[in-house]
Amino acid sequence: MKEQLQAIKLSVESALKDADTLEALEEIRIKYMGKKGELTAVLKGMGKLTPEERPVIGALANEIRQNLETEIESKKKTIESRLEEEKLKSEVIDITMPGKKTNVGKLHPMTQVMNTLKEIFMGMGFSIAEGPEVEYDYYNFEALNIPKNHPARDTQDTFYIEDNIVLRTQTSPMQVRVMEKTKPPIRIIAPGRVYRSDTQDATHSPVFHQIEGLVVDKNITMADLKGTLERFVKELYGEDTRVRFRPHHFPFTEPSAEMDYSCFNCGGKGCSVCKGEGWIEILGCGMVHPKVLENCGIDPEEYTGFAFGIGLERIAMGKFNINDLRLFFENDMRFLEQF
Ligand code: DAH
Fold first, then answer.
1. pLDDT reported for residue 300
2. How confident is the model at residue 64, as a pLDDT?
3. What local confidence, expressed as pLDDT, does residue 119 receive?
4. 284 Cα to the center of ligand 1, angstroms
5. Cis omega (within 30 of 0) for bond into 255
6. Best substitution site from 285, 287, 289, 312 to test ligand 1's pocket, by max atoms within 8 Å of Cβ?
7. Listing from the earlier edge strand, what are the strands of the sheet with 165-167?
8. 308 lines ligand 1 (CB under 6 A)
9. What's the pLDDT at 6?
10. In the prediction, which pLDDT does 155 show?
11. Mind giving me the DSSP string for 134-152?
12. CA trace torsion 152, 155, 156, 161 (10° rounding)
């Protein structure tokens, strides 16, 4: 058995010398130390040896096995680092190669405009209130001083979910929701989607966006309204922009007005953007109607307030020079990628 081991030792040594791939090393390991390996067979036969022979042969066998294992390990390391080096050499990075273009996502133009307006108002100390798009008739109409059969309901082609539940036709119901919950001073904007059953065309869509504004405190006057809204427009279109207020009617404000600003394109001379007018309408506004304050549990003798509602689509169309509203809602990548 000793001779057998010596023979194995010699053949292991010569086999290892020639092995220069990981596969060759693995083959050697299996050949000698695998389940049916030559060395394994010898070790299995140890039981048949005499007690005197056993330690001598055992020590020799172990020495051979240990040698084999350490040799294989160190050869493996050498081969692996050689492979690594070869890999690095073959994988030289050519930094002059043109890069692959990744697709960068962009904010929807409506989102961009929404963010700009939010930032302007937040800069003036307004906080943001959000509320449901599926709204009670009470909040959308009743509490805003628009009772059943009021003609103002006709101008807001309403989607009814149930008798007393609608898709909000305006963000104004947020005025009521905020006043019900908050004690003045109140200074909020409420941005969001609104719905009207309009037939879709270049300037109408059954869903569009508004930003509602509401300020309630002691001694709030029309001067606060004008100052705030003029500041807003100047932040949006530049310091040279002028504004004008035209008397109007909204059931939930008294007095009410619509505000125009001098055309961002021609500065007021008249052009195709403002259709020769020099002015572009941007929002509706007014002093909160005493009845609305009362409906929300706020004493109109103690507090006054102003409110405004801004349509966002028209601002976005002007800003990005877009003449068809439908483009905003079709989500055609060729359109969206341009912003
Ligand atoms: N809710 C009105 C609309 O959708 C816009 C509006 C006008 C809102 C005057 C207001 C306001 O808060 O004071 O047509």
1. 97
2. 84
3. 98
4. 5
5. yes
6. 285
7. 134-136, 165-167, 160-162
8. yes
9. 83
10. 72
11. EEEHHHHTGGGT--TT-TH
12. 80
Residue nearest to atom 6 of ligand 1 (CA): 309
pLDDT at 67: 85
Q: From CA 186, how far away is CA 288, in angstroms rounded?
A: 12
Residue linked to tokens 């292991």: 12
Residue nearest to atom 2 of ligand 1 (CA): 309
Residue that has been written with the tokens 């066998």 in this structure: 61
pLDDT of residue 258: 98
Q: What is the pLDDT of residue 31?
A: 86
Ligand 1 site, residue 298, Cβ cutoff 6 A: no
CA–centroid distance, 207 to ligand 1, in Å, is: 16
Q: Kindly tell me the sign of the dihedral angle through the C-alpha atoms of 199, 260, 282, 152.
A: negative
Does 284 contact ligand 1 (Cβ within 6 A)?
Answer: yes
Q: What share of the chain is helix, strand, coil (3-state, %, to 5)?
A: 45, 20, 35
Q: Ligand 1 centroid to 67 CA: how many Å? A: 90
CB atoms within 10 A of CB 309: 22
Backbone angles phi, psi at 162, to 5 degrees: -140, 180
Residue numbers of the chain with a pLDDT score lower than 70: none
Q: Calculate how far, in angstroms, residue 79's C-alpha sits from the geometric centre of ligand 1.
A: 78
Residue 305 beta carbon below 6 angstroms from any ligand 1 atom: no
Q: Which pLDDT does position 234 carry in this prediction?
A: 96
Distance 286 CA to ligand 1 centre (A): 8
Query: For residue 127, what are the contacts with CB-CB under 8 A and spacing of at least 6?
Result: 187, 188, 189
- Nearest atom in ligand 1 to the alpha carbon of residue 306 is 13
HSE at residue 228, side-chain half, CA atoms within 13 A, is: 26
pLDDT score at 44: 82
Q: Whose CA is nearest to atom 4 of ligand 1?
A: 170
Secondary element (H or E) of residue 281: strand 279-288
Give the residue whose CA is nearest to atom 12 of ligand 1: 308
Task: Note the pLDDT of residue 18.
Answer: 84
